[in-house]
Every structure is written in structure tokens, then in C-alpha cells.
């Protein structure tokens, strides 16, 4: 007993001495009026910066040996190191076009991993491709390439290096190819879920087959029109698909050895300007034309820098880490937890029954993943397209100067329709439950071919770049081509909820907005991805890249609007009442950041939403009301019919590259021609 007591006493002294020698580590974080916070920063518009690994895997390409001059079809990783961005800072593009750059709160530092696939991987992949392919006759575009003009030439054009062999030509399913690459990524050191570009070259192998890719099963939701079977929907790239029961798949492949890409007009290697805008179009010829001495666009070209261009300006800027066009927050700082989609069908005389061209419940199911924590409700109202509303609709598609309805407004075509829509929206909000966001969509079911083929547009408010209305259009001509309302409206609501096209965007390092025109004509390749935001009608839903982006935007929005709400509380001198709630919310945001860095973007957004709601609920309980922004109540000049001078957005009628942020058109005449080509 004595020995035990002495030992216990000595142990106590030892522990006390240890405590004196090693003082407790102070809590990390920043001292605020709410206590020590690690992640929340009251009053600060913060940015979540993360290091993002991007794998670039070369399949069938050979690396330039050290000290050697790169040949036309060899790859030098130096081209990629010089071309690819070190970082990306996402911005809200349309609000920023009104003169003040508005960041989303998401930025990235890239960590590139360059891999050259080994012989075994290449052998297995091209064995898969050959087995998966089905023999197909040449499309009109492939025949055009062989003739460099209208199909029907007896001998191939003299200015191409090699014609496509109709007896050795196959079509491969693009989704199966993407899945094969994703399932075999570990063989080249790629972990599941990492952002990966596969750059493919079959041409330099003895087992080469002329080939293209397709999504032959792609159909319109309402009409069952098989868009995937259209010859100009053949592909040279694909990726971003979601797979049930599988981890997130972040793979995009680009095959320069595929038959010349129809969506970028790569089949025409003779004419420098294919879209007629009097600017030479930079596009990628098929790989066998690189380094040619023939008189075509491949003369003097090397594959390596072009692959780097596609990786930067398509894969990274437009697919992996794009900038949204609108704020994902919708009504900052009070973000909605209920969204009511108001579908207004404006029924023209002689137009088809709306039930045959619109599936409202399916539309809601497809849109909901973009706001996964909001409760959705859809209302459908059908009215006759007549009277003043029909007149406003006609103004939207005025065909001559005499038809213009609003000379005194900046938007000489859309203003009457916008004003009528605003009045209806204001009236609807009078009976709307607080905290509910109304998403107004007008679907014009026209019985006549009153316009040239526009499917839809997601409008902003004309003053702050805030999203306002969704307009979808259907005419007999569009219906005959195969379109209904459901897919178009999902696409336009995708815009409204923030998403951009995968063929136009912004390079933050270079501060350049660009689309498929001029030196960036090749970025139409971005449409060759699993996204209903594409223009090629091959996807019905939002793909993995869309969902990743949206959940990142939401995570940052919840964080920064919680910061804004806490600042309102501080200014109201109620910080002491929210100390515990703020610290608990801070823990959730810190956990969200951990998931965000681990690429679990949905998990991050979920925790961030919980943290945000904790702050908002505590603020309301303390008597501090956090107001939602209502753009329709803050419009200048709507009643007195005069446009205020500060409302001047940078709008571009073309997709030509421009410094800074601009508002690009929904589509150009050339894009419409491409989309409506059979």
C-alpha cells in the first residue's frame, strides 16, 4: 500500500510537471464578435481555393525524345506546361458584364499529371474500340472531306493527305468508350473520380480503322426524334457522364485520329472561314493532315500545341472548372429553400396539344438536382397566345426596322415581353409564401413559323445581370425537325439556375471571354459531353461536370451568404446571442471544406447548406431579418419607360474572343444552321 501511494504521488507530480512544461495549444481560427471561427468570416466575401489534380493521359501518342525536335504527331509536355493555366478563378459571367467583376467564391490551383499509356493499355483499348465498332457507310460530312466539296467526286481531293476508306470505317459508342477508360484508369495511375483528359491517337498503329463516335440512342424526350443518328452529330470526343451505382466519373476523351469532326466543321480543311464571319476559324484537322505539305489547314501544324489548346480552352475552362452565367444563390443573402416553377404555356392557334410536347413532372425531376436542398413545386397554366402578349411576342422576333416596338429601350426587341412578364411576376409574388422563389418560364407554343428557329433563352434583368425569365419557343418547323418543350426548358432553366454552355466561357488568367469563333472555333468540341447544356441534343440531363460545378457554386454561396447574414447580426448588435449558433455552423462549414477538397462536392454543399440554415434560423430567432434580393422590385425605369444610364451591359452579338466579361448570344446564325442540319 505504501509503495502504491508513493508511486501514485510521484505520478501526480510527474503529470503536473508535464502540464506546466507543455501548455495547451490555443484553438486555431480567427477571433470575431461571435467567438473563434475557423471558416466563417462575417462580412467577408470569401473564396474557397483548392488544389485540383488534372490527369492528362496520352493514348497512342509518342513523347518527343529529350533534345529532339518534335515531329508533327509527337507530343512534347513542354507545350502543355507553357499552355495550361496555373489557376482558375470562377466568376458570375452575366452580372460581371455589367461593369463589376463578381467572383463565385471558387478558385483552383492546378496540379497536372502527364501520363503516356503503356503498350498493354493501348493494345487493350484499341482492341476494345475495334470490337465495339460497327461498320457504317460514310456520312455526307465524311464524303465532303474526301472531296473537299459536295460529295460525289470520283477521286479524292488533291489537297488532302488521305481519304476516309468507306470499306474500313466504323462507328463506336461514345459512352461505352468513356466507361472503358474510366474503368481502366488505375492501369495508368488514375484514381477513380479524378479529373482526367484522355488524348487518343489510333492512326499510327497497324490496326488503325477509320472511325467516329456516336450516341445513337439519343432521342428527344417529347417526340422520340433520334438526334443521335443524325450524321452531323457524329463525335470525336465525349465525357462527363453519370453512372448509377458508381463513384463520380470525371473523364473526357478527345480523339484526333477520329474522322474529321462535323460539329467543328473539321471536314472542310480547305476554307479558312467556314462560319462566314470573315474571320479565319481555328479548328483541328484529322491527325493525318498534321504536318502536311498540301494546301490545307494542317500545313505547318503540330499536334502537341493543339492538344494543349483543347485541354485548356475546352476541358479545363468549359467542362472541369467553368464560370457560371448567373448566381447560384438566386436571392442573396436569403437563399430559397422552396422553388416554385411557374410554367406558362402560351398556346397559339393551330399549335399541338401541350400534353404532347411537354412533360412537366419529368422536367421538374431533371431540374431538381441543381438545387438539391430546395423543395420544388411546379404549376402549369395554359392561356391563348393573343392580345397584347402576342404582340409582345411578335416584337421579340421583329424582322424589319418598322416592326421594332421599343425604340427608347436598349433592348428594342425583348422589352415589351419583359415588361409584361415583370407585371405578372409582381402580381404572383403578392400571394407567394415568404421564402419561396418563383421561377417563371414562358413556353410559346406557336401555330405558325413566326421565327427562324430559336429554341429558348434565359433572360437577365437588364440592370444587374440577375436572372429573370425563361422563354422557350416551339413552331411547326421546330416540331417537324423533332423538338418539343421539355428538353429545351430544362436547358434554359439550367441557365437560370447558373449553368453556362460547354461551348462558351471565360479564361480567368487571360481575362478573355470566348466562344466557337475565330481562333477559338474548335471549342464547339465542348458540346461533345454529357450535358443538356450542349447544343447537339445528345443528352437529356445534367452531367457530372454540371453537377460538380453547381455544387461548388452552392457551397461557396452558402458560405458567403452566411458571412453576410452574420455581418447583419453584428451590425444589429446581436452577435452575443448568436455566438453558439455561429460556432456550430462554423464547424459544419469546416467539415464541408474537407469534403470539398476531397471532391465530394454534393457532400460539401449539403453540410454548407446545414451551416447556412443554422445561421439564418438563429438570426431570425434573434430578430434580425435577412432579406432576399428581389430584382423585380428594384428595376429602374420600368414604369416611366426610360432606361437608366447605369444599366449598360457589355453585350456581344458574336462569339469572337474579347477581353473581360461579356454577354454572348444564346446562339448565332451559324450555330442555328449547324443545329438544324440533317
TrEMBL record:
<dbReference type="GO" id="GO:0008237">
    <property type="term" value="F:metallopeptidase activity"/>
</dbReference>
<protein>
    <recommendedName>
        <fullName>Peptidase M43 pregnancy-associated plasma-A domain-containing protein</fullName>
    </recommendedName>
</protein>
<dbReference type="InterPro" id="IPR024079">
    <property type="entry name" value="MetalloPept_cat_dom_sf"/>
</dbReference>
<feature type="signal peptide">
    <location>
        <begin position="1"/>
        <end position="17"/>
    </location>
</feature>
<keyword id="KW-0732">Signal</keyword>
Amino acid at each position: 500500500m505504501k509503495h502504491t501511494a508513493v508511486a501514485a504521488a510521484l505520478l501526480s507530480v510527474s503529470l503536473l510537471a508535464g502540464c506546466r512544461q507543455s501548455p495547451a495549444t490555443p484553438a486555431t481560427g480567427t477571433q470575431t464578435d461571435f467567438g473563434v471561427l475557423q471558416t466563417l468570416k462575417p462580412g467577408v466575401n470569401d473564396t474557397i481555393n483548392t488544389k485540383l489534380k488534372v490527369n492528362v493521359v496520352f493514348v497512342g501518342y509518342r513523347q518527343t525524345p529529350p533534345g529532339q525536335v518534335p515531329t508533327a504527331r509527337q507530343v512534347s509536355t513542354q507545350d502543355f506546361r507553357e499552355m495550361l493555366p496555373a489557376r482558375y478563378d470562377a466568376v458570375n459571367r452575366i452580372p460581371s458584364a455589367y461593369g463589376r467583376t463578381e467572383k463565385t467564391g471558387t478558385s483552383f490551383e492546378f496540379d497536372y499529371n502527364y501520363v503516356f499509356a503503356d503498350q498493354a493499355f493501348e493494345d487493350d483499348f484499341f482492341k476494345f474500340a475495334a470490337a465495339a465498332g460497327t461498320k457504317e457507310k460514310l456520312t455526307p460530312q465524311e464524303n465532303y472531306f474526301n472531296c473537299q466539296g459536295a460529295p460525289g467526286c470520283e477521286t479524292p481531293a488533291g489537297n488532302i493527305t488521305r481519304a476516309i476508306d468507306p470499306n474500313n470505317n466504323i462507328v463506336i459508342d461514345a459512352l461505352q468508350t468513356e466507361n472503358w477508360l474510366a474503368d481502366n484508369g488505375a492501369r495508368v495511375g488514375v484514381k477513380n473520380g479524378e479529373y482526367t483528359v484522355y488524348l487518343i491517337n489510333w492512326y499510327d498503329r497497324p490496326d488503325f480503322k477509320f472511325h467516329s463516335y456516336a450516341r445513337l440512342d439519343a432521342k428527344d424526350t417529347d417526340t422520340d426524334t433520334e438526334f443521335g443518328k443524325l450524321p452531323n452529330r457524329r463525335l470525336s470526343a465525349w465525357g462527363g457522364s453519370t453512372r448509377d451505382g458508381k463513384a463520380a466519373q470525371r473523364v473526357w476523351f478527345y480523339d484526333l485520329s477520329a474522322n474529321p469532326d462535323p460539329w467543328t466543321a473539321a471536314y472542310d480543311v480547305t476554307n479558312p472561314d467556314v462560319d462566314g464571319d470573315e474571320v479565319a476559324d481555328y479548328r483541328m484537322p484529322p491527325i493525318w493532315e498534321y504536318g502536311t505539305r498540301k494546301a490545307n489547314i494542317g500545313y505547318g501544324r503540330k499536334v502537341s500545341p493543339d492538344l494543349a489548346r483543347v485541354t485548356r480552352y475546352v476541358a479545363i475552362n468549359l467542362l472541369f472548372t467553368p464560370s457560371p452565367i448567373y448566381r447560384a444563390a438566386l436571392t442573396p443573402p436569403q437563399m430559397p429553400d422552396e422553388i416554385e416553377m411557374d410554367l406558362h404555356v402560351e398556346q397559339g392557334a393551330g399549335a399541338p396539344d401541350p400534353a404532347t410536347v411537354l412533360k412537366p413532372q419529368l422536367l421538374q425531376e431533371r431540374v431538381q438536382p441543381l438545387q438539391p436542398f430546395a423543395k420544388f413545386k411546379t404549376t402549369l397554366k395554359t392561356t391563348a397566345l393573343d392580345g397584347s402578349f402576342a404582340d409582345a411576342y411578335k416584337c421579340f422576333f421583329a424582322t424589319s426596322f418598322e416592326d421594332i416596338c421599343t425604340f427608347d429601350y436598349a433592348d428594342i426587341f425583348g422589352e415589351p415581353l419583359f415588361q409584361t412578364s415583370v407585371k405578372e411576376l409582381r402580381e404572383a409574388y403578392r400571394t407567394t409564401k415568404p421564402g419561396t422563389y418563383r421561377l417563371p418560364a414562358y413556353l410559346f407554343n406557336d401555330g405558325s413559323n413566326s421565327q427562324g428557329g430559336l429554341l429558348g433563352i434565359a433572360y437577365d434583368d437588364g440592370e444587374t445581370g440577375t436572372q429573370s425569365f425563361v422563354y422557350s419557343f416551339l413552331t411547326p418547323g421546330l416540331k417537324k425537325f423533332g423538338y418539343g418543350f421539355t428538353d429545351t426548358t430544362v436547358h434554359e432553366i439550367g441557365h437560370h439556375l447558373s449553368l453556362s454552355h460547354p461551348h462558351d466561357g471565360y479564361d480567368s488568367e487571360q481575362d478573355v471571354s470566348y466562344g466557337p469563333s475565330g481562333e477559338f472555333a474548335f471549342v464547339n468540341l465542348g458540346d461533345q459531353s454529357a450535358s443538356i447544356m450542349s447544343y447537339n441534343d445528345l443528352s437529356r440531363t445534367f452531367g457530372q461536370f454540371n453537377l460538380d460545378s453547381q455544387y461548388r457554386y452552392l457551397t461557396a454561396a452558402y458560405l458567403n451568404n452566411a458571412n453576410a447574414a452574420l455581418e447583419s447580426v453584428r451590425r444589429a448588435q446581436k452577435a452575443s446571442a448568436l455566438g453558439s449558433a455561429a460556432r456550430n455552423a462554423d464547424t459544419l462549414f469546416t467539415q464541408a471544406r474537407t469534403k470539398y477538397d476531397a471532391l465530394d462536392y454534393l457532400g460539401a454543399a449539403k453540410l454548407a447548406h446545414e451551416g447556412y440554415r443554422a445561421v439564418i434560423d438563429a438570426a431570425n430567432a434573434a430578430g434580425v431579418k435577412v432579406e432576399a434580393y428581389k430584382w423585380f422590385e428594384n428595376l429602374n425605369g420600368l414604369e416611366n419607360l426610360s432606361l437608366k444610364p447605369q444599366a449598360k451591359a457589355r453585350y456581344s452579338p458574336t462569339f469572337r474572343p474579347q477581353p473581360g466579361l461579356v454577354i454572348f448570344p444564346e446562339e448565332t446564325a451559324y450555330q442555328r444552321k449547324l443545329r438544324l442540319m440533317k
